[in-house]
């Protein structure tokens, strides 16, 4: 692998970060055995890494069962990371207003590898809503927010992403690639992308690209989503999608 041939690449650091990345939003504590399964690392290696990360405050060990959960030291890193994205601060109050007005969940995300990571999520006051939160990861290729991010990129950047996605999906990639490219073409016509029950059967979602607001900031994407029992395709296309495009214009006004 290229990483193994890179003399600048610190394998021990990478393995420690793999252990931290094995935790998922909403989960409880994990054992060394589960961490080894998720990372593919030997359990003895994971044991040393989890011990070191605990000493540094990035993991916290539970006394009763010896399992680990993410430590408080990560909160400072997370807060610093989120503070670096000006779009989040600008978008959050407008997103809260949008969620309440349209009775949907609305999220802001940026790309990490072949996934989209949520930077901000605002939900309506409905009793049932899409339960994703800040830090959640969703796949780029099958979600409205990922497709919108992809569709709004310059052609050269889209082309550069395709091999990464092909590596992730293997034999499933040709069919997914066709759907992703169709979604990009639809974005050029309608100004939004859609995923109606493709990522999760009971979730309807539309997405829109959000260009970089400042030099050096990454492009992002917005989505609006709701449960399928409350929103059919017509409601998403005729009511929610135009409102989402108006929200994007408020966050990142374009001249004209």
What does this 3D model show about the protein?
By secondary structure, the protein is an alpha+beta fold. The chain folds into two domains: 66 residues, Arc Repressor Mutant, subunit A (Orthogonal Bundle), CATH 1.10.10.10; 166 residues, GAF domain (Beta-Lactamase, 2-Layer Sandwich). It is built from ten helices and eight strands. α7 packs across α9 and α8 runs antiparallel to α9. The model has no long low-confidence stretch (mean pLDDT 86).
End-to-end separation in angstroms reads: 48 Å
Q: Stretches where pLDDT falls below 50 for ≥5 residues? A: none
Proportion of residues in helical segments: 40-55%
The computed structural class is alpha+beta
Q: Biggest sheet: strands side by side, in what order?
A: 5-4-3-8-7-6
Please count the beta strands (DSSP E, at least 2 residues each): 8
CATH class of the largest domain: Alpha Beta
- Rounded to an integer in angstroms, the radius of gyration calculated over CA atoms is 20 Å
CATH architecture descriptor name of the largest domain:
2-Layer Sandwich
């Amino acid at each position: 692998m290229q990483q193994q041939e890179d003399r600048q690449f610190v394998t021990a650091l990478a393995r420690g970060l793999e252990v931290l990345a094995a935790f998922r939003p909403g989960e409880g504590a994990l054992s060394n055995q589960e961490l080894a399964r998720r990372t593919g690392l030997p359990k003895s290696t994971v044991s040393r890494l989890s011990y070191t990360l605990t000493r540094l405050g990035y993991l916290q060990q539970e006394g009763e069962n010896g399992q680990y959960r993410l430590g408080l030291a990560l909160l400072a890193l997370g807060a610093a990371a989120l503070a670096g994205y000006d779009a989040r601060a600008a978008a959050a109050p407008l997103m809260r207003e949008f969620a309440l007005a349209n009775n949907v969940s609305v999220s802001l995300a940026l790309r990490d590898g072949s996934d989209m990571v949520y930077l901000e999520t605002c939900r309506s006051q409905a009793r049932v809503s899409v339960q994703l939160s800040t830090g959640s990861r969703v796949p780029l290729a099958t979600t409205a927010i990922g497709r919108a991010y992809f569709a709004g990129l310059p052609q050269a950047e889209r082309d550069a992403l395709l091999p990464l996605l092909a590596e992730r999906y293997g034999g499933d990639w040709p069919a997914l690639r066709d759907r992703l490219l169709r979604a990009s073409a639809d974005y050029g016509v309608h100004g939004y992308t859609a995923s109606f029950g493709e990522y999760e059967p009971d979730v309807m979602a539309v997405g829109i690209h959000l260009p970089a607001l400042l030099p050096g900031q990454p492009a992002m994407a917005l989505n609006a989503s709701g449960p399928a029992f409350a929103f059919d395709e017509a409601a998403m296309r005729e009511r929610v999608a135009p409102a989402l495009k108006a929200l994007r214009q408020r966050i990142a006004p374009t001249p004209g």
